[in-house]
Design a protein that fits this description.
The chain has 6 helices and 10 strands; from the N terminus they run αββββββββαααααββ. The chain is an alpha+beta fold and 259 residues long. The strands form 3 sheets. It has a 4-stranded antiparallel beta sheet, covered by helices on one side. The longest helix has 15 residues. The chain is globular, with a radius of gyration of 20 Å.
Amino acid sequence: MPEGDTVFLTCHRLNEALAGRHLVRGELRHPRLSTVDLAGRVVSEVRPAGKHLLMRFDHGRTLHHHLRMDGSWHLYAPGARWRRPGHQARAVLATAEQVAVGFALHDLRWIPTSRESELVGHLGPDLLSPDWGPDSEAEAVRGLTADPGREIGLALMDQRIMAGVGNLYKTEVCFLLGRSPWTPVAEVDAREAVRLSHELLVRNAWHPEQTTTKSLGRGDQHWVYGRKSCLRCGGPVRRGTQGTPPDSRTTYHCPRCQP
């Protein structure tokens, strides 16, 4: 599932391509929204809310959606061939200059902008919000420590505590904390966990590559995520499952560096 930085960059690129422009084509290929024609409308802005995307239009309407595991947006020149099959397209929004195609989008909703909070109001502080500051950090720390016995890996991915952390950053934050993802929150420096989460997402927000090591070299981007050996000590990385289906996730840790 895309992390918050991926959604942030997607929204930024869509906003640059569409905001302030009239749509010459606007199709929503979803059973509930098939009668909605967006042609002639103006996109006001595209902004993220954690892992949710909010595409706001004139006349006070919002297209809300989620990328989940397989969703993505592509930008094309008019007439260019799409890189994914047409039957996977769920939204086609075109201006005179560019065509934005949303593939495999999930949870599509066409709602009044005034009702956005019904879909994203449950989210904790957004780690990539321009308003992030000491108050946001303190709120996230309070949420993280509210259940001291909870596994830190599960707590980090709880979007109600702070929005934006996915499985990759959860795994790498736990590594940098020197704790396994199964460690109880009470045994972890919660403030440092929040600060690391914010730092890693901000560091990667403006480019598609995701690195937690500050290196973009092939095979050096992550400490343990997706690896067989630890980048720091060279020891074997253990792979396990955390959480309960259908929300369980594969996670990684180094027993030597994360006792």
